[in-house]
Amino acid sequence: MADPSAHGNARAQIRPHDAIAEFTRLLWLLRHILAMLLALFFLLSIAMYYLGGTVGATSRAPSSIGETFYFCAVTALTIGYGDVVPTSALGRIIAVLLGLLGVLLTGVVTACAVYSIQFAAQRAGLLHRQTRTADSDP
């Protein structure tokens, strides 16, 4: 195991404020992309309500707008309880698109979180940025 003092101060700690501030800054920089993804989520949710034929799995009754948004959120988060299901082919296609959208949105937010923690660690002296030169091996 590597010596913790080899990369800087052994007592250095990541400051949560640095990570949170960087995370907020990144989300702000990506606000247009995130807004577009959220708008697409709402458009797909509305399409699911009118075209997807979502029904309660046990009652087989048509879903309300609230139940449809719940289904769309559960699908986008890739949880998938199965208590509300689409019954039409178009509804199943919309569900797949919602799942892909959710994975994309989750990936963007996760990447921002990881970068923010790396930024805070670098600022604390726990992580050094490596630069590649033309002579270095890939």
From TrEMBL:
Keywords: Ion channel, Ion transport, Membrane, Transmembrane, Transmembrane helix, Transport. GO terms for molecular function: voltage-gated potassium channel activity. The keyword Transcription regulation does not apply. Residues 42-112 form the Potassium channel domain. GO terms for biological process: action potential. It is a multi-pass membrane protein. GO terms for cellular component: voltage-gated potassium channel complex. It comes from the Bacteria. This is Voltage-gated potassium channel.
